[in-house]
Structure to design on (123 residues):
């Protein structure tokens, strides 16, 4: 969870620095344009925000259901690296790779759900 929080902090810093460098007026809308880095950076953070609550709930669910810590950790790290990839590919305007990472994010969340539901108890 700390790594995901760190990623979000970095995303916020990137948005803030980009806003300052582009002289974006705080509170004003950002032009919807995938050629605009500030728009892509903002949408990347928005995408992270859309899945973070589910990630936190599933991580807690796995902990409280006493599911396998090692499988839970693999799912959590998979989520993190998929989110990181999604962010970097969004920044770089590489849509196909970004979409693959989004699929991996969803796969990681489903794997965490199954881990909690079915237990996969063990070491």
């Amino acid at each position: 969870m700390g790594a995901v929080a760190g990623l979000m902090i970095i995303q916020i810093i990137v948005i803030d620095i980009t806003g300052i460098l582009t002289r974006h007026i705080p509170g004003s809308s950002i032009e919807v344009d995938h050629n605009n880095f500030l728009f892509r950076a903002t949408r990347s953070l928005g995408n992270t925000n859309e899945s973070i609550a589910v990630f936190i709930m599933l991580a807690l669910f796995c902990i409280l259901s006493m599911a396998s810590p090692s499988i839970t950790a693999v799912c959590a790290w998979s989520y993190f690296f998929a989110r990181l990839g999604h962010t970097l590919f969004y920044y770089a305007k590489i849509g196909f790779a970004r979409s693959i990472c989004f699929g991996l994010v969803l796969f990681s969340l489903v794997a965490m759900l199954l881990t909690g539901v079915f237990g996969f108890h063990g070491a």
Residues 2-118 form a domain with the Four Helix Bundle (Hemerythrin (Met), subunit A) fold (CATH 1.20.120.550). Helices lie at 2-21, 37-64, 69-91, 95-118. Residues 65 and 116 are 6 Å apart (CA to CA). The chain has one domain: 2-118.
